[in-house]
Design a protein that fits this description.
The chain is an alpha+beta fold. It is built from seven helices and eight strands; from the N terminus they run αβαβαβαβββαβαβα. Helix 2 runs parallel beside helix 3. The chain starts with a helix and ends with a helix.
């Protein structure tokens, strides 16, 4: 081979290596490293952690809950909707009868939760935020889970493929859900308390 041919070969090799380096750098920038964090209750800050993640949402919040009585989490969902985030909520059917469910509060703020009555219990406790962050664990989104129960809450950042699978599962469940009906038990309790306060 001539000197020129060696030079062209070396130049081509260096160009290819530069391209590989650039692609890998872009890939690392685009693919957020997986980050895991965990909180425990009682009184371990699980509710605060959920609210913190909801405040970071910019595009979409998908939530599945068994029991839902947490006022701070309900308010964080309402706030997210107010700032333009798409919020989708699937609840177990017990929320249509549970005295302290936040179902009516969500309906009153223009959110439309769905009821998953396809199963004996819709026991998922999951949130998928912006298709990148997953919240899961045993922690029910309730006051009792925060202050009395022994629970765990896992937050996963950067779980692209994992988040995609959770999102797909959410959409499959939503496919057999129905829009929630107003909780008459909770409404009656609220009205009773209001009349007593007025008296």
């Amino acid at each position: 081979m001539t000197v020129l041919e060696w030079f062209l070969l070396a130049t081509g090799f260096m160009g290819a290596m530069t391209l590989v380096f650039a692609v890998r750098k872009v890939y690392r920038w685009w693919k957020t490293p997986l980050e895991l964090s965990v909180s425990f209750s009682p009184k371990g800050g699980c509710t605060d952690r959920v609210v913190e993640e909801l405040k970071r949402a910019r595009h979409e919040i998908l939530m599945q809950a068994y029991s839902f009585t947490s006022k701070p989490i309900a308010q964080a969902l309402v706030d997210a909707k107010t700032r333009g985030v798409h919020v989708d909520i699937l609840l177990d059917r017990s929320n249509e009868d549970e005295t302290y469910s936040e179902l009516n509060a969500l309906l009153g703020e223009g959110l439309v939760p769905y009821i998953d009555a396809q199963h004996a219990i819709a026991h998922n406790k999951v949130m998928v935020i912006d298709s990148r962050t997953i919240i899961t664990g045993s922690f029910n989104f309730t006051h009792q889970a925060e202050v009395e129960n022994a629970e765990n809450l896992l937050v996963i950042h950067g779980g692209g493929e994992l988040a995609r699978r959770y999102r797909q599962s959410f959409l499959e469940h939503k496919g057999h859900c129905q829009p929630a009906k107003k909780n008459k038990t909770s409404a009656a309790k609220h009205d009773s308390g209001h009349h007593k306060a007025a008296a």
